[in-house]
Each structure stands twice: as structure tokens, then as C-alpha cells.
Design a protein that fits this description.
TIM Barrel, 8 strands, about 50% helix
């Protein structure tokens, strides 16, 4: 069993990493995505259709393909975060962190003492307890802690939030951020872009890796050039939709219709 987080090591070396979100509760999807050369794949337990038992199977399938398995949890809940890590996630993304108090709770939930409050227990990550000590001794250094800034309240308090020690990635959710600013119908609004710039600059000043969700490759390339280094390249349903549409278009062209 390995206890080294390849994505965390790549980020520490200054590399930009890319991967998709996975919302479908399918090991087949994980295996297919895992074979495509992504740095990471994030199982979405907030909005996706994935339960905890299925998540463990997805993490194992993602790891077999050579990508790093990550997870977004449903909320800032110490006990659920612990269970998702025990299931094999190598990094946790906590949604809607709007204050330093919420940031501290999220960070401490991801770490074993003395850095945090995560409890020891047998789980898939430690081969159901058979390699408990080896896993626990490495986990505090190897687990990626990712906090989402996706509300204008987070923008207003971002300097305080980023003073909490132990944050690896500040991940911007641009669409929810736009909604919180009254621009649901225009996520590219200049006010939203200014808020994103504020979050990016604050993360860089704090020595925290800036991340962001992008709906497609053009946006991902633009954000990488802007300075984001943990870049989400769409999600599984986008790929299925694009592939199906491309196949139909190619068939119509081949038939001359």
C-alpha cells in the first residue's frame, strides 16, 4: 500500500495539476477517466449521486488508473470527513467555507492529532486497520486539504480564512460565487471576475495553491495562465454529453445529411 500523495507532491514542486469532477456513482466511469492521464479525479459527494460505500470503490478504481482520488464532501462535518478519508480519499474539498472558524473546523477534521481531531479507526485507506500505524503516520503529511470559496462572504473574509494553518488549496467555485453576487445569469460579470482575482491574489500571498472549476479546456487554459494551479476540467456528464453530440454530428456528416 502506498502512502504518498502524487498530486500534493506535484503542487509542492510548482506543477499545475488538472482533473475532472465525477458525479456518477459508477466504477466504470472512474476506470475510464482514470485511464486518460488526469492528475486527479474528484468524486463529488456534495452534488453527485455517490454514497459512502460506492465512494470507496471509486477511489480504488481511480487509483488503479494512476490518478489521485479526491472527494468533495457534502458539508463541513467532522464525522463525515473522517469516514470519507477512511474510505480512501487522498484529499478532501469542503464546500462553502465563509469564515475562519469554518476553515479551522474543516482543517482540523482532516488531520490526526496534534494537528487536528481525526480519530483513528479501521478503514479502507489503512487496509481495514491492518496497516493502521503506517497509514496514520503518513496521513497528516499526505492528505490534501481543500477549502471552497464560493460565496461573496468568503471573499470579504478571505485574508482571515487564509490565516488558518493547514490549508493546501483554496478552490474557487465561480458559478455559486456569481449566484451569491446576484449574477446567476452572467458568471462572467466584471464584478465576479474581480472577486475571483481577489481570491487568487490572496491565496498567492498566503502561500496557498489557488484552484478553480472550469467548464471546458479553453477556460482551463486561461485560468492556468492566470495563475491557478489546481484546475478542474469539467465533469463526467460534460464528457458524456460532448462525446454523444460529436458522434451524432460525425454520423450525419458521414451520411451526407
Amino acid at each position: 500500500m502506498r502512502y504518498q500523495n502524487a498530486v500534493k507532491k506535484a503542487l509542492q514542486a510548482g506543477t499545475t495539476v488538472y482533473g475532472p469532477f465525477q458525479g456518477m456513482a459508477s466504477v466504470a466511469v472512474s476506470e475510464i477517466l482514470g485511464a486518460q492521464g488526469f492528475d486527479w479525479i474528484l468524486a463529488d459527494l456534495e452534488h453527485g449521486q455517490i454514497d459512502l460505500e460506492t465512494a470507496g470503490n471509486l477511489f480504488a478504481a481511480i487509483r488503479r488508473g494512476g490518478a489521485t482520488p479526491l472527494a468533495r464532501v457534502s458539508g463541513n462535518d467532522q464525522f463525515f470527513i473522517k469516514r470519507v478519508l477512511d474510505a480512501g480519499a487522498e484529499g478532501i474539498m469542503v464546500p462553502l467555507v465563509n469564515s475562519p472558524e469554518e476553515a479551522l473546523l474543516a482543517v482540523r477534521s482532516c488531520y490526526y492529532p496534534p494537528k487536528g481531531v481525526r480519530g483513528l479507526g479501521p478503514g479502507r485507506a489503512s487496509l481495514y486497520g491492518l496497516e493502521m500505524l503506517e497509514y496514520a503516520q503518513a496521513a497528516n503529511e499526505e492528505t490534501l486539504v481543500m477549502l471552497q470559496a464560493e460565496h461573496i462572504d468568503a471573499v470579504r473574509r478571505i485574508e482571515e480564512i487564509l490565516r488558518v494553518p493547514g490549508i493546501d488549496i483554496l478552490f474557487v467555485g465561480p458559478f455559486d460565487l456569481a449566484c451569491s453576487m446576484g449574477h446567476m445569469d452572467n458568471p462572467g460579470h466584471p464584478e465576479v471576475e474581480a472577486a475571483i482575482e481577489t481570491l487568487l491574489a490572496a491565496a498567492l500571498r498566503a502561500g496557498v495553491v489557488p484552484g478553480i472549476f472550469c467548464a471546458g479546456p479553453e477556460a482551463a487554459a486561461r485560468r492556468a495562465r492566470q495563475g491557478f494551479r489546481f484546475v478542474a476540467l469539467g465533469l463526467d456528464s460534460f464528457y458524456l454529453d460532448a462525446g454523444a453530440k460529436a458522434a451524432q454530428a460525425a454520423l450525419k456528416k458521414a451520411l451526407g445529411s
